[in-house]
Amino acid sequence: TEIYTLSLHDALPIWAPGESRRVRIAANDVIISLTGPEGISANNVTPCRISDIADRPGGLVDVGLAVGSAKLVARITGASARRLGLANGAEIFAVIKAVTVDAGHPFGPR
To answer: What pairing do the DSSP bridges indicate for beta strands 70-77 and 60-67?
Structure first.
């Protein structure tokens, strides 16, 4: 079953074009932008909605992101969350560097 399609802009040549893969994206590798970023090196930008915000130890915040039917988590500082004025339901953009994507096994029976 496909969870979500994220084009990685040919950044991972080990995958055949159109091949489905399960990936793991670390919360520390997701950047939040209030507007669609321009002029950046990251090719993977996807619109999403904030589904939840949870405080973590050390002044960090986990921001749950709904991307279609998939979920991402961005881990940012509490200061950044306050500065951006993040709130549940807000429409934002997630920025993901392709080199941080951990390729799993192709979709299929487990």
So the answer is: antiparallel
pTM summary value: 0.75
Strand ranges, E, within the chain: 23-24, 30-33, 44-56, 60-67, 70-77, 91-96, 102-103
**Tokens describing residue 10:** 């040919």
Query: Using CA atoms, how far apart are residues 38 and 45, in angstroms rounded to an integer?
Result: 10
Whole-angstrom Cα distance, residue 107 to residue 20?
Answer: 6
In what order do the strands lie in the sheet containing 60-67? 30-33, 91-96, 44-56, 60-67, 70-77
Question: What are the mean pLDDT values of the chain's consecutive 10-residue runs (110 residues total)?
Answer: 47 61 81 92 89 96 91 95 97 82 49
How far is Cα 19 from Cα 96, in angstroms, rounded to an integer? 19
Beta carbons within 8 Å of 5's beta carbon, 6+ residues apart = none
